[in-house]
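Suppose you are handed only two things: the residues of a chain and a line of SMILES describing nicotinamide-adenine-dinucleotide. What would the bound structure be? This form records exactly that question and the answer produced for it, so the two can be stored side by side and reused later without any lookup.

QUESTION INPUTS
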Amino acid sequence: MRARIRWGLLGGGPGSLIGSVHRIAASMAGDYQLMGGVFSSGSATTQRAAQQWDLNEDRAYPSLDELIRAELARATHERMQVITIATPNHLHFDMARRLIECGFHLVCEKPITTTAEQARELARLLQSRRQVFAVAHTYTGYPMVRQMREMIAQNAIGPVQKIDVQYYQGWINPIIHDPSQWPKVWRLDPKLAGPSCCIGDIGVHAFNLVEYTTGLTVDRVLSDLDGLHPDNVLDVDATVLLRMSNGVRGVLRASQIATGEENRLHIAVYGRSGGLKWLQEEPNRLEWLREDQPIAVLKPGHAYDAPAAQAASKLPPGHPEGFIDAMGNLYRGVARAVRGEAVAAGDYPGIEDGVRGMCFLEAVLQSSREANRWVLL
Ligand SMILES: NC(=O)c1ccc[n+]([C@@H]2O[C@H](COP(=O)([O-])OP(=O)(O)OC[C@H]3O[C@@H](n4cnc5c(N)ncnc54)[C@H](O)[C@@H]3O)[C@@H](O)[C@H]2O)c1
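ANSWER OUTPUT
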């Protein structure tokens, strides 16, 4: 049996949103073993998590300083190899920079930093190293998203001529109308979230999905952001016009005040001869539109799917896989890269995607601030 990759986790403690997704996803294919980490800002919580998860409490560290010191003191065959950063945003950059400098491979949550310059600094650091850096754009791990990417690349809908992506949630709505709740939500605090709430939290996913599925790059944006409440300094709603580098037009709408919406990430890409539509809440359906023909629905696990989509599902058709499975596919790609095996371009988003996301975020903020003018990425 192949040795498991020794894995560490920062953040992701009990009660966190994304921590259990990472833990289950990483263990899914048997590639990783969680050795320890810093699961919380409180060392008692980190220790409690280590007990719950049956880990060696010696490796449930009180701080990143302590983790680095103790892990580097271990022999290389015992040391953590891959570390995931799943803390609130303001900690990502410093953690990533230090861990890259110490030679660890990383999986980093989005937004990878709080400024584009920090993201570029991480990219520069990685340039001359052989370390893996993956960004947790979970949605790229879905089989039908990979199918969409392959079909567009294979010209199944002809040249792309219109892009429409929407990421609507409603969970901030009751909070934004009750300012006494704001201090409990780190995503609304610029010191913890960075310069954006809605774009940083979900807009960057939608942006990444556009570039991932179409293979095109966004050249410029024109945006209109709203914080809804006059005292709230961060955006909770965004409407963004996209101009791709080949001139194609698109629109990106992201909102956390779309009352009653859950996690409605929807992308539609229209080409000269057809269109493709995918909705995250029904991730095992990909709609294929063609003129004068009934809408076709493609599903995972079939021989008609592209190899990249087939490789992203573990079960026969009709056995639904979901969000955690999608994250698991990113971890499988990272495992292949860490082991020096062949990796394809779409297997996991890399540092360049993280940099693009931060450039997008800053351009969107600038456009809205400067009277909704076009801003280059
Ligand atoms: N990829 C996705 O689909 C997705 C989904 C949700 C969140 N996220 C991202 O994941 C990150 C975490 O989001 P969340 O919703 O899980 O947040 P959360 O508030 O639910 O959890 C954050 C965790 O980090 C821990 N933490 C805080 N400070 C720490 C420190 N100094 N050291 C170690 N741990 C610390 C907290 O104790 C908690 O366990 C954010 O960057 C967010 O944008 C990504």
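WHAT STANDS OUT: The first strand starts at residue 5 and ends at 11. The pocket of nicotinamide-adenine-dinucleotide is lined by residues 10-13, 16-19, 38, 40-41, 86-89, 91, 109-110, 136, 138, 186, 201 (CB under 6 Å).
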